[in-house]
Design brief:
2 copies of one chain form a homodimer. Chain A is α/β, with parallel strands linked by helices. In chain A, 46% of the residues lie in helices and 17% in strands. In chain A, the strands form 2 sheets. In chain A, strands 5-4-3-6-7-9-8 form a 7-stranded mixed β-sheet, with helices on both faces. A two-stranded antiparallel ribbon of chain A has the order 1-2. Chain A is globular and about 65 Å long.
């Protein structure tokens, strides 16, 4: 092999090997979650025998799985014992309130995984191989799973979103949460402003998850349900603020503009729309997570995308909004785009 | 989210997200190879329209795929045009003699992929969910695909292996290449020593690939075939050197010792055995590739492993070898273990 690139670093195929085998990393994390490995590691003492016993699994299998997790940065190993990294303690141990392990339920759904088995065809055709409108086909049951299992990823974003939307406002207000899913964003607004009244819009089976979350948060008296499609139901209102979280990316630009016009028409003078999105830089290849999210939209929708701020601003402008501002959420891959009606 | 870990770095779930979605990276590389994206990028000019045209694919799909490859370090993007990284130029462009893309044929085989769909069960049981002996079931056709498609990964190792085995020896000698596969290692010995005579041992359909490679290398007059299983056939000999490349990892330690005894019995006094392996450090979690290889052995075999040097040395010692020395191959994940009979 050649020993040097132009930069002086050794030229090796390591990155090619990594990508060839990357699927193993997802399978290993999924297996570790199913086998409750991260709880076992958190409880200690971290020796192989006790982890295997907790997982009701063979020592050979447990040892190779745990070593593999260490290689992938999801555990540490010292003196033959496994222990948490700061990340795995916070985000993978079920004993942690920030545990994200339930996300695997949603991300492993055949609906989301199968298009990757036919990715060359997806790229050829430029759209999902799923039937109809893909994941946004009406009443697609995956959104119930989304509402149930992706909440831990969204929960840390709710506080910042509530603060940006409310700007300290504590008076009576009405908020519409479009495609509310788990409902956490609208619920947070209701928590931060005891005079806010929130309407959650989503398909009915999804709303049942949201209303249960509203009940847990103690805001169910100020939480209404508006079942149906955002494109079909009458929004009512007018509202002081309308939330559009994790939604626009499923659709093409014209569809987004149409929806944003309908949104703007339901906002009071001086009110605002708050859009939560993965927003890549204009180069579309950074930061990694927002940029990579376009692949999920390619495989699961007909014409969705990870839109840049420029594109989102243009959509909002075409729909009549003004003063459109991006608020990246620190230490998260998400951005809130605020627009005045 | 908490803002700091003990080390002062921000605590983010990035590594968890990466592992949750890592399967997408393998699918993207596979699709890009199938669509001949890397050749298109190498030919230039690297604009989206010309790459999509070459790939006979939609611009939406091609753009999202290429951006995703950039995120994963497999392409670069500047001023809206895609171009090779040093690694993708060397190892993914079919115009490069070092191109590794054919490896995807082997690594995508259902036999190798399907156990990962049931990894929790594999870990519970401590062995592959494949029937019988897994990938080393007699006459498993995957080894023909291995011989045909993994040669580019092995080719850069052949030169160093030949030099270490021959140590400048140019006189008449006999070499047995056990589980020779593509045959490149024995063929290289024959190329480096014009008086070496090589016998390739493997299942017959695999040997047909090896003999064709021997023909291409012009050494077919000094290349014999010994069809069958290394555990069953008589080796003949005695040999000056016996090669055991990418083979011991499929079996448990006792089986390896049994085989090594048979190997040693077929080596002339003063001769040697040369084993090529992924050899992790004693911690079993470094370096990344040799350590991670244990996962492939867990999923595809009954009792194989990525053995440490200590384990390999013990096996060789039990089989009667002495002066056992590890030779890591620079800029590769492989190590050659030399042992004197």
């Amino acid at each position: 092999m050649p020993s040097d690139t132009g930069s002086g670093a050794a030229l090796t195929p390591t990155i090619v090997f990594e990508n060839l085998q990357a699927h193993q990393r997802t399978a290993a994390l999924k297996a570790a979650i199913e086998l409750d490995i991260f709880r076992a590691v958190g409880q200690g003492p971290g020796d192989l025998a006790s982890i295997a016993s907790h997982a009701k699994a063979s020592e050979r299998g447990t040892r190779i799985l745990c070593d593999f997790l260490v290689v992938n940065g999801l555990l540490e190993k010292a003196d033959g014992r496994y222990r948490h990294t700061p990340s795995s303690a916070a985000f993978l141990d079920p004993a942690s309130p920030m545990c994200l392990a339930s996300m695997m339920h949603f991300l492993s759904l055949p609906t989301l995984r199968e298009p990757f088995e036919h990715l060359a065809d997806v790229v050829r055709n430029g759209r999902t191989v799923l039937p109809g409108e893909g994941t946004v086909e009406p009443d697609n049951p995956i959104w119930v799973t989304f509402a149930q299992s992706m909440a831990p990823m969204m929960a840390p974003l709710a506080g910042p979103l509530g603060q940006i939307v409310l700007q300290g406002e504590t008076g009576p207000m009405r908020v519409l949460d479009i495609a509310c899913g788990h409902g956490l964003f609208g619920i947070e607004v209701a928590k931060q402003n005891p005079q806010a009244h929130v309407t959650g819009l989503d398909w009915l089976p999804v709303l049942r998850v949201a209303i249960e979350n509203a009940r847990k948060a103690g805001v169910q008296d100020r939480y209404d349900m508006l079942p149906g499609s955002a494109f079909d139901v009458q929004f009512g209102g007018p509202y002081d603020a309308i939330l559009l979280t994790n939604f626009l990316h499923h659709f093409d630009i014209d569809t987004c503009v149409t929806l944003l016009k309908k949104v703007r028409a339901s906002i009071k003078p001086g009110g605002c729309a708050a859009t939560l999105e993965f927003v890549p830089n204009e180069d579309r290849v950074s930061p990694p997570m927002p940029a990579a999210f376009a692949m999920t939209m390619l495989t699961s929708t007909v014409a969705g995308d990870a839109y840049t701020f420029k594109e989102l601003a243009q959509m909002h402008t075409k729909a009549g909004f003004h003063d459109i501002v991006a608020h990246p959420i620190p230490q998260s891959p998400h951005t809130i785009v605020m627009a005045q009606a």
